[in-house]
Amino acid sequence: MNAKWTLMIYMAGDNNLSEAGEKDLSELRSVGSTKDVHVVVEFDRRGSSHESLRYHVEHSGVEESVVSLGETDCGDPATLLNFVRWSVTNYPAERYALVLWNHGNGWKPDEIDRVARVSGAADYSLREAGERAASHLGRTMFRTSLQRIFEIPTVSERAICSDDGSGHSLDTLELGNVLQQIATDLGRPLDVLGMDACLMSNLEVAYQVRKFVRYIVASEEVEPNDGWPYDRVLQMLVAQPDRTTEEIAADIAKLYVRSYVDRGHSGTITQAALNMAYVVSVCDCIDKLCAILQPSMKSLGYVVWEAKRKTSGHFFNATLWDIGEYCRNLIPKDSEPPDAALQIIRDVLPASSIKEARTASMQIINALDHEQNGFVVAEGHSGPKAAACKGVTIYHPPALADAGVSKFYPELAYAQEHKWLAYLQAYHS
Q1: What is the pTM of this model?
Q2: Residue 10 and residue 223: Cα distance in Å, rounded?
Q3: For the chain, first and last CA: distance in Å?
Q4: Is CATH 3.40.50.11970 the right assignment for the domain spanning 3-105+169-275?
Q5: Per-residue exposure over 162-197, b if at least 16 CB sit within 10 Å of its own CB, e if not
Q6: So what's the pLDDT on residue 368?
Q7: For residue 98, which of 174, 13, 192 has the smallest C-alpha distance?
Q8: Structural domain boundaries of the chain?
Q9: In terms of CB atoms within 10 Å, which of 3, 68, 204, 311 comes out highest?
Q10: Does 203 have pLDDT greater than 70?
């Protein structure tokens, strides 16, 4: 008889987080697998001398099954796919959860140097490797994402990609490809995709994987090194494995936030559980808003800029913005004190269009309200930067003269099938 759950945790620990990975493995061992819940881990430790190991995690590590893989490339999507296939074959279950674990400072300069040389980067120097490692590209999840950056022909263009969110867009594409193959292998969507990683509670990510995953649990913000409270999560799953997938996904998000609040963590904490069945309806509401505002963007550019200025929930070098807070600031209520932005809206748009835009904004905000049983089924946050967050970000890069919309963003499914890309292009023009 199959278990009720197989929890697969892919620890890309061959970076600055090997010690954090050991701690999380200890948390998992404090509970261990049961007849109803298999816990399997692939852990790629730091350094060439550390081989990758696969574990069937047992309580206290007693009689634990361990498979040695030698040195592997945890940044290769094929390595992730191989781990999932091994897990499903050896530990079949009624439902599957996959957790992608990677939330540190990311790629080191020597690793980026190797990627650049393999990619045949033009005008490349070791100095650039250090610059890319120190930039937001250093946080990319997949090595193949970095390779595409270094295939860009000039240093200056690659530098722009360090700041315009290109790494996030490329990771989203790769993640979609891997999950599509996993869903094909399973013959159905993955039940839960957990991302114990940074910045992945994002509309573009959700839309890219919507056909291959039922629920996502992820953070809008960069995660602290401690990441998920694996002991609490596994205790919950082992105690009540028959609960609905939505209830389990929601509890993971709540347990994450509570674990940091309980210890008095002072930084920004965010976590949300998302139901993929509702992502298209949110995108359709955003399309309505774009259709109203985009034709008048030349006159409304200041309004958009001001809405972003008022939005505290922005992440990843100000390229990812909390959708709910942004929409609330974009179309102020008539009852709010008038300011320059509201006066511009009244001067540019007819009253009927303002009413439609306000309705569309509220539809988006309501869809993100976890009490409405829609796209966001649970959301929690802590810290002043996240006080108004609703759980999901959207790509909205700064209007800079040398950057703008990432050249890779148009490859995303959301950019191709909805109106947001045209809205961004109108704003940046």
Answers
A1: 0.94
A2: 16
A3: 60
A4: yes
A5: bbbbbbbbbbbbbbbbbbebbbeeeeebbbbbbbbb
A6: 87
A7: 192
A8: 3-105+169-275, 109-162, 280-372+382-428
A9: 204
A10: yes
